[in-house]
User: Fold this.
Amino acid sequence: MIAEPARREAIAFRSINVHGREMLLSEHFAHLLAPELVSSLLDKDFSSTAEFSESRGACSRVVVDQGTPFIARKYRRGGWLRFVQRYNFLRLPWHSLERTRPFAELRALSLLQTARVQVPQPVAALVESKLGVFYRGMILTEEIREATNLLTYAREMERGSSSTEILTQLCYRTGIEAKKMLSAGVMHRDLHLGNVLFSRNLQVTLIDFDKCGYVNRAELERAKAALVRRWTKSARKHGFQTLVVAPFYAGLSEHTV
Assistant:
């Protein structure tokens, strides 16, 4: 049985226009990050950065003068569309900035942080309009230091360099965080082994909330079933189904008081 976490104070953001680019910047990090610096990251070529790779984003590690590390992720398309519009997304004139991927993900992370779900600290979102109906965008989050994703850990376990017991415990904790996420009204569309980080103290963090959705209490059971299906698909794909599905489901089903 787990206790319902107390809520944090809501994160405040500044709305800034930098040479025609729209930005939301966390008040908490405003003293560290000049808007012009954040804006310049959108023009940076991340293709040569092999440190990070996510399914729907090109990532780079950013360290400011004070030594605080951040992760910058530019949104990019997958599938056949990546050959036509790699970084450009449609935004019709009547669509608000809140409907763009960077702003939507930033708001979701802010909501989850307030609800004390273990997700990256949202720092900034940036959108640049192109040709009137397209935009490209980027999100900046605080780095989870010395973290490894569950898929990497599970693969190391096959080589005998990691623990089955620890993997089981991490999957259980992931299920607990997923339950807290749903209780906060947010649905992760693609929760799999590669989208969960853990640190040295075995604290798990859910990442990659691009294209996330929202759920109400009437939809919770259906949302849980969808999470289990996606988790199971990922586990089956990589050959870890017998190890990671049951503990994830147990955490997701844990009673909250």
In short: The chain is about 30% helix and 25% strand. Residues 45 and 204 are 30 Å apart (CA to CA). The first strand starts at residue 13 and ends at 18. The radius of gyration is 18 Å.
